[in-house]
Design a protein that fits this description.
Elements (H helix, E strand, L loop, with lengths): L1 E4 L20 E6 L8 E5 L7 E3 L20 E8 L6 E2 L1 H5 L8 E5 L14 E2 L1 H9 L4 E4 L12 H8 L3 E4 L9 E9 L7 E10 L4
Helix pairs in contact: 2-3
The structure holds zinc ion.
Zinc ion binds next to strand 4.
Length: about 210
């Protein structure tokens, strides 16, 4: 068995959405070995910082929350598509030429994985691409940017995917991964009533059945 870690490392200096200071993680040491016998840290973390899965509540007013997400949807066979040649956004024609099957969980590798710095012009999945994936009845989609769309008015990509029950995984790191079939494991924390969770995402080969 081979394992690829496709998660971002979480630390105060990491790359965050639009380089906003309020999105940076804060590590507060509550106790350490100089004053006691245990080391404890309190972490302040925006749930959309780093590698994470969005629950429908993130965009849909009555959407369901992260602890309700079925775990078998995040321990699953998946297919990595190499879309590194795309400069701006992933559209329907870009996806039509790709090998996509019913029930696929797709991982979209783009040029975003080439740098760790936040890129204001990051490659995203546009509305036409989201409609196409919905119509192809995929189960989930992951991408190597902190958002699956940039800041489109009304968040059409999120709405189309979430409205169809398609899982959205963001903030992946895929430079070291090739196109192909894998097992994906990306389990959210059991945070009650919330709209997202950090995940430790890994790809494994061989893929599970
Ligand atoms: Zn998010």
């Amino acid at each position: 068995m081979r394992i690829w870690d496709i998660s971002m490392s979480i630390h105060p200096g990491m790359s965050v959405y639009k380089n906003r200071d309020e999105n940076r993680p804060v590590f507060a040491i509550a106790r350490d070995h100089t004053g006691g016998s245990a080391y404890e840290t309190r972490v302040t973390l925006n749930l959309h910082t780093g590698t994470h899965v969005d629950a429908p509540l993130h965009i849909l007013e009555d959407g369901s929350t992260i602890e309700k997400m079925e775990l078998d949807r995040l321990i699953t066979r998946c297919r990595v598509l190499d879309l590194s040649g795309i400069e701006d956004r992933i559209t329907r024609p870009d996806l039509e030429s790709q090998p996509i099957g019913d029930n696929d969980f797709l991982i979209l590798k783009t040029r975003n994985s080439r740098t760790d710095a936040f890129d204001y012009g990051f490659v995203y999945l546009d509305e036409s691409g989201a409609r196409y994936l919905r119509d192809r009845k995929i189960r989930g989609v992951g991408i190597d940017s902190l958002g699956i769309e940039r800041d489109q008015p009304g968040h059409p990509t999120h709405r189309i995917l979430m409205g169809a029950g398609i899982i959205i995984l963001e903030g992946l790191r895929l430079a070291h991964v090739s196109a192909g079939e894998y097992t994906l494991i990306a389990l959210p924390l059991k945070l009650e009533g919330l709209e997202a969770s950090p995940v430790r995402a890994v790809l494994i080969q061989p893929p599970i059945a």
